Amino acid sequence: MIAFVAAVTSVAVGKDRAPVPAIITNARFVAILPLTADSRADWFNSINVNPDDRAAADAIFAALQKWHRYQYTLNPRDADIVIAVRAGRRAEVNGGVALPDANIHIGDPRTEGSSRGNGPDSEDPNSRIRPAIGVDTGPAEDTMAVFAGHDTDHPALWIREQRDGLQGKLPLFESFKKDVEKSDPTPSKKP
């Protein structure tokens, strides 16, 4: 019985279903993030973003500008859809120093000798300089995924992986563009 339901579902989905859902074709605003970043508008300032992911996000941004279908927004919270990219690599280990979130005032009499300062006696663990180590694992192929809204914690609406898919002519982006245009044949929207 389960096999029959699965077979019927795959036939029904394959024939009349559009390559992308209406959420994507009806979207107006899009944000771009590395797949490994969180949904913050300042991801590009993070030292934890892999340079290859940053380059892939830049390339997708340039391609979106040429397409004229969506309007780019820097803040993912303002986006109807989010395009997340990850350059292919099996594993990566990085390290560095995590700086405190607060301003450091050396010689500031208001914080010297106080437990409210940024020194070793501070009670706030986020206010101390400390080592930072990160590990990232994933597919060896480049990945491009599209999510609804700014929440990349939910399943992707569209996702593809391909070797060198975010290089050169951006075959992953071109595949996405083709699927969107196949689902919504109206001319590109001018934002």
Cα distance spanning the termini? 48 Å
Overall average pLDDT: 75
Structural class: alpha/beta
- H-E string: HHEHEEEEEEH
Output the number of helix runs: 4
Shape by Cα distribution: globular
Estimate the strand proportion.
15-25%
The percent range for helix content is 25-40%
Strand order in the sheet with the most strands: 2-1-3-6-7
**Poorly predicted segments:** 1-14, 102-119
Rounded to an integer, what's the Rg over CA atoms? 22 Å
Count every beta strand, where a strand is a DSSP E run of 2 or more residues: 7
Commentary on this structure:
The protein has 191 residues and is an alpha/beta fold. The chain has four helices and seven strands, in the order H-H-E-H-E-E-E-E-E-E-H. The strands form two sheets. Strands 2-1-3-6-7 form a five-stranded mixed β-sheet, with helices on one face. A two-stranded antiparallel sheet has the order 4-5. The protein starts with a helix and ends in an 8-residue tail after the last helix. The relative contact order is 0.20. The model is unreliable at 1-14 and 102-119 (pLDDT under 50).
Task: Give the SSE map.
Layout: H1 2-16, H2 22-26, E1 29-34, H3 51-67, E2 71-72, E3 81-86, E4 91-98, E5 130-137, E6 142-148, E7 158-162, H4 171-183
Parallel strand pairs: 1-2, 1-3
Antiparallel strand pairs: 3-6, 4-5, 6-7
What tags apply to this protein structure?
five-stranded mixed sheet; 191 residues; alpha/beta
